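Reopening this one. Same input as before:
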Amino acid sequence: MHVFVTGGTGLIGSTVVAELLGNGHTVLALVRSDASAAAAEAAGAEPLRGALADLDVLRSGAAAADGVLHLAFGNDFSSADALAKVVAEESAAIAALGEELVGSDRPFVTVSGTPAVPGRVSTEADPAMTDGPVGGRGRAVTAALGLAARGVRSTAVRLPRTVHNQGAGGFAGVLTNIARQSGVSGYPGDGTQRWPAVHALDAAVLFRLALERAEAGTSWHAVADEGDTVRDIAAAIGRQLGLPVESVPEQTYGPLGPIFAIDQPSSGAHTRQALGWRPKQPSLLEDLANVRA
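Same output, byte for byte:
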């Protein structure tokens, strides 16, 4: 399969591209810079120059492919306005890609986050989160799943709060960066809230399986660790950086503060059973041993 991938040179995307190429697929990768183009070519992918806001470029990439895997996201969490802009840009990109695929029966894999359900572990049967700082992303992915009725094999892989590799990435990576800057490995509230996690290499396998096998209109959970307490995550970071571990105000995390404070464990049991996905890489707490000061 010739696959158009957005976000193919990031922490997650680079592992997905390698997984696709290693399993007989070819990749057309959206790239924004010369450095990204060189990285894509070095990995064995064909680069397509453009940004997520270049909707005509996205349409051309989708038109040239047998399937589309959308991973790109701006990751600007500096303010509520910046985050809203990133979400709006991605929503427009998802809509453009999906419309290009209507009537083709080609696969379209999108990304959202695992939902938080008060009082219990969330599952694949729960709806995407459509409220809060990144609710627009959930609404865009829900709309993409609705394209199943219009001849698109659209599916969604829901990523947990931390997708990690060599101690970096995800919300745990945000905690690490703030700890380096502030001199305290912090956590919001009492730290008993739980975050699910997955290693990027395991997530890459699930993206490939969804592309190859998943039925239209379905959602899947890339969850290897059902939920580590944020206090334990902060303790692991503090241990590696030699910093004190303390509760800090929710406002420390800007627009992500309300999300960080929520208990949000999640299960990937159905995904493992239905798609035969088997995570094999180190857990988050094990991988945080790779954090360096």
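So the earlier flakiness isn't reproducible anymore. For the record, The first helix runs from residue 11 to 21.
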